[in-house]
Amino acid sequence: MAVDAQRPTARAATTSRPRPKREREEEVLVWPDLVFIEFIAAVLFTITFLILSVMINAPLLNRANPDVTPNPSKAPWYFLNLQELLLHMDKAWAGVLLPTIALGFFASIPYIDRSRGGQGVWFGTKYSVRLAVVAAVYTVFVLGLLVAFDAGEDSRFEYATRWVPSCDNAAEHAGLPCLKDQEGAAHTGFITMKDISKRLQFSIPFPKIFGTSAGDIEEGSGDEVLTKDGWLDWPEDVDKIPVPFNNFSCCYGSLHLWEGMNLNLASIMAEQVLPLLTIAFFTILILYALFRIGWLRTKRDVFIVMFTAVVTIYFALSLVGSFFRGEAQALIWPWEVKVDEG
Q: What pLDDT, on a 0 to 100 scale, did the predictor assign at position 65?
């Protein structure tokens, strides 16, 4: 009898315990939790788009004419950032390599940052909000300065480099760095980064290569060497450096691996090396500054800063290409953009 009296008590104690909640019950259903929200968003977007279409008169142009190229000729909005990059650096880096590196960086984040803490949480680290804000503001500021510097004539940034003297066109060797101006034109500073390969001139003493001299080489023979007169003149002596084996003679005649290919070191410096070094410098600068402040503590913090910077660059360059580029891709104010309504 004593045992039977205890059975109901044990059963009651067992049934009073809460059943552990399964993960399945924490999920939400596609309908109505997801589809209903998407439907409301689609309706609001359609109504907003209709109101804007009625109130704002979009300037429609004439029928497309394949014989007339519009000026400016702009890419679709999702490629405007790449078109903007093409104005500032080499086309291979701007159109292919940098976008590929950015996409590869996005894809590599989950494999490098393997921490499970704060997964799926917006701003999951202690300083993530301020890191994102600082990175966005810093990126817009630096990007604006670089774009303005590379459009020095339109933004008046060339005034900051007018201290670089004008070259004496009559001199055989420029000597100290100087900028070559057009004949009869007023002296200007660096207008674009490409002036490093076109207008910048300087000369430094350099030993003759292979002991040759200017009189030993037939002009136009293709056998010119880097410094035929004991001076290294920028950019004349570095704008046509033959690639090794570009006309290699073999037992079966002339084997052309890359016939007549030459390297323009001046253009490589202006359009590839310096822009890439600029990107690397400002990236390392912001990361180091945030690390010294104490906000940058984990890999996720680093990725938050870099991800925010890349996304900000994407939209900032798109805005510049949309609203600040006019005829011949000149940098202008948005209210100066003219649209030919036909």
A: 80
Write down the domain spans for the chain.
30-59, 72-154+272-336, 158-270
Maximum C-alpha span of the chain: 126
HSE toward the beta carbon, residue 253, CA cutoff 13 A: 2
Name the residue with higher pLDDT: 274 or 245: 274
Residue 32, preceding bond cis, omega within 30 degrees?
Answer: yes
Coil, strand or helix: which one is 222?
coil
Long-range contacts of 84-89 (CB under 8 A, 24+ apart): 84/147, 84/317, 84/318, 84/320, 84/321, 84/325, 85/317, 87/150, 87/329, 88/146, 88/147, 88/150, 88/193, 88/275, 89/193, 89/271, 89/272, 89/275, 89/276
Q: How far apart are CA 332 and CA 314, in angstroms?
A: 20
Predicted confidence (pLDDT) per residue in 60-101, tens digit: 777 778 887 778 888 888 899 999 999 999 999 999 999 999
Confidence check: pLDDT of 214 > 50: no
Q: What is the pTM of this model?
A: 0.75
User: What are the structure tokens assigned to 188, written together?
Assistant: 């200007």
Q: What is the Cα–Cα distance from 308 to 325, expressed in whole angstroms?
A: 25
- Give the residue-averaged pLDDT of 30-48: 92
- Show Cβ contacts of residue 167 under 8 Å, excluding neighbours closer than 6 positions: 174, 178, 179, 180, 181, 201
Phi, psi of 270 (to 5 degrees): -75, -35
DSSP β-bridge partners for residue 205: 231
Nearest-angstrom CA–CA distance, 163 and 187: 10
Structure token pair of residue 8 = 């109901």
